[in-house]
Structures are given as structure tokens and as C-alpha cells.
Amino acid sequence: MTAIMHPYTTPNGTLPLLTGVLEALHFMHRDMVSIVQDLPPDALHWKPGADMGTLAGIVQHTLYCETYALRRATGEAVEYDPAADKGAWDVTTDADTLVAAIVNADVVAKRALPSLTVARMGMSYTAWGGGETVAGVLIQEGVYHTAMHWGHMQMTRQLWGQHHPEFVGTYKPW
Amino acid sequence: MDNETRKPNLTLVKDAPAETTQETTEELDETDDVPVVAPWSTWLDGNRQSLKTIHSDMRFLVKGLPGAALNWQPGVSTNSLWATTLHTLGTTLHLLSTAADIEPHWQDWKRADELAAHGEDPALLLTAITNMDDFLDKVFPVLEEEDPATERDWLGKPKPLSYLVSYAVAHAGRHIGHMEMTRQLWDQRSKKR
User: Is the Cβ pair B170, A28 closer than 8 Å?
Assistant: First the structure.
């Protein structure tokens, strides 16, 4: 799959309180694709300041945590790997690879959340290599974490563009 | 934590320990004795707590800053900490009050005014944040009485309550990301001078 299908309708049977979450994730994922898809490698690997992330790194870290949280919330036997997450910050992947990662994360969210029932939302699972977390809280954390880093992506893209006025892209900051 | 000891903004959602645990697939028999949950109420409470966490982060980002820092914009067509704080709070207010069908509704929203705002005294921002925390404590009990699938008019389109609440968190979370970078860039800029 190379694109996020739009518009998106949540499947019948999805818990109403998760419908809003899916719509929010759908919106965020589509904007992430717009942020990275037209950029050259140097833009994806640029840092706006010291101790800050590159677009490629922010995207990979964000999606790693999001897919982990949502898959774990459904009880999948997925393991959090701190080394892999830490390594995500240093990736030097191109735009096509990042778009594919975003699309994959979108598929995971749209597969995982509609499968949840009231009972499953209240289940607890070990997570992040530590103690137990309620499935609903894992989803909550995952969405908030994604939203925060989405803000980093937007601003990083905007600042890179202002450092490179010769670049004419398709993304419009809003 | 003061500014000097503040960590870089790009951190994990959780601090990860050195070792991970091996998991086995956890299959749930729906007839098992599972915890009793009131999902809408529990879900709302999680969102309320997320917004309060965001507000706490906001306090940290603006507290004690001089006016020059609060009104500084990191680039063209970007927003200052002052404007972003007021815009984020204003959006949360109108999303949730619209969801709860109480005043103010979205038609009263002054988005452009929020984004054009500037000021000098961070105490005013801190008061606005505290007022929003108080509002959260009042509006969420109202929302608990509602059905998550109930639709409200938001910007002229019907949207379910679950969307309006989720979007309030996603919107505020996104702007916290903007605020973190703005603050971090301001700190780096001011150290060079």
C-alpha cells in the first residue's frame, strides 16, 4: 500500500469512543505524509537546533511508539525494544521509506482499534518493558505522544523551508 | 525543574528500562472475570488527565520568561509562546464546550485574535492555564452524561462527541510540540547572544 485511503469510515462495530481516536489518527497520518513526501534527503536529515531531532528521526520514533502502544493495547505479543527506538532517531531513510512507514502505522491503527471491545479496553498489559498498563491508557498515551511529535514535525518542516527558500514544495503550513 | 536542567524535548512517552520482558500472546476470553469498566467515563477521565498534563507542560514552558521570549517567533508565519498558549487554551475551551452544548460555542471562537495576541507578564498566562484546569473539572462531568456518538455542530459540520474530545487532546498535544521547539530554540538563541 502506498497511500492512506481518504475519506475513511470506521468499520461497523467500532466502539463510539474509539471512532474519534481513529478519525484523529487518520488526520494526523495524512498530514505527516504531506510533511515528508516531497522533501529531499538533506531536509529529512536536518536538525533545527542542538539536541533536536531530524524529520526522519521524529517520524520513525513516533510511529515506533504508536504502533507498539496500539498493538500492545490489543494484547499482541509485541516487545518494546529500547535500542530499536533509540536507533529510530538516527535513521537516514528517504521520503518514500518514511511514507511507507506512516502508511503502515495507519494500517496498524485501523486494524487494532476497531477490534477492541469494552472488556478489552479494561485489560491490563505489561508495557514499555515495565509494569502493567490498562489498554485504554496505552491508546491514550499513544495518541497524545503522536500528536506532540506531529507538532515537532510540522515546525521542523516549516523551519527547514525557511532556511531553503529556493525549495518549492507542496506542503502548506497551517 | 528550571530551564537549565530541562531535558531536550524529544523524549520517549515512557522512560524505558535497560531490559525488556518477553511476552506471550494474551488471549482474552470475553467470559473471563475482567475488570468492570465504564468505558466512556474512563475514557473521558483519561482525556481530562492528558489535558491537565499538557497544561502542566505549558506552565513549565512559559513560567518566568521575559516578554521578549514570550513574544518571539522562531520563523516567518510561526507563532509565539504567548499566542500559542492562548490559542491552544481557546481551542480546547470551544471544542469541549461545544461538545457539552454549553457556552461558549464554536461560533464565538476568536481564533485570529488568539494567534495575534501578545503580552509581557507570564503570570497572566499561568492564570489562564489555571482557569482552563478549573473549566475541565466542570465540563467533563457534563460530558459524562452524554453519549459518545452524539453529534454536535463543529465549524458547520456534525461531529461526534468522541471526535471533539479526541481532537481537543490531539490539537493541544500538537501545539505543545510547537511550544517545546519554540522554547528550546529561544533558549539556544539567547545563550549565543
Answer: yes
